[in-house]
C-alpha cells in the first residue's frame, strides 16, 4: 500500500479558503492524502460562512475546524505545500524535505459585502473553485509521474480560472 501524501494548504487567516481546501481534499482524496491547513496570520476563528458552505453544499461537518498558524507544522515534512492566497504565497517559509510548492490563488470570500445571501454566494464560489482544482489534483497519476512533471502539473492547476 502507498503511504498517503502529506499536503498543507496555506492562507493568511486560515479561516475560509485553506479550510475549504483541507476538508475538500480529505473528502475527494478518499484517504490518499494526509491534509492540513494553516495561516501566516491566523484569525483564530473559522469563518461561519465557510462552515455553513461545507455543511450545506458538501455535507461536511467542519465544526471541529480551527484557525491555526503554520508554525504548528514547521517540523513536519510535506509532499505538497499549496498556497491559496497571494499574501501566503509571498510570505511562504522554506519547508523541510523540499515539498512541491504551488499557488492556487482564490479571491478571499471573507472580504465579501452585501446581504447574507450575497456573501454566502462568494463563499460558495471560492469553495467550488477549490473543489475543481482538487478534483484535477486527485486525477493526477502520481505514481507514473517524475517529480518535475508532477510539480509542473500541480502548479498548472493554479492557473485554471474555473
Secondary structure elements and their pairing?
Elements lengths: L4 E7 L5 H13 L3 E7 L8 H11 L21 E4 L2 H6 L8 E4 L12 H23 L8 H11 L5
Parallel strand pairs: 1-2, 1-3, 3-4
Write up what this structure looks like.
This protein is of the alpha/beta class and 162 residues long. Helices cover 40% and strands 14% of the residues. The chain has helices spanning 17-29, 48-58, 86-91, 116-138, 147-157, and strands at residues 5-11, 33-39, 80-83, 100-103. A four-stranded parallel β-sheet has the order 2-1-3-4. Helix 1 (17-29) crosses helix 4. The longest helix is centred in the C-terminal third of the chain and has 23 residues, at 116-138. The mean pLDDT is 92.
Name its key features.
alpha/beta; 162 residues; 5 helices; 4 strands; single chain
Poorly predicted segments: none
- Rounded to an integer in angstroms, the radius of gyration calculated over CA atoms is 15 Å
> Number of helical runs?
5
Give the helix proportion (percent range). 25-40%
How do you describe this structure in short?
The protein has helices at 17-29, 48-58, 86-91, 116-138, 147-157; strands at residues 5-11, 33-39, 80-83, 100-103.
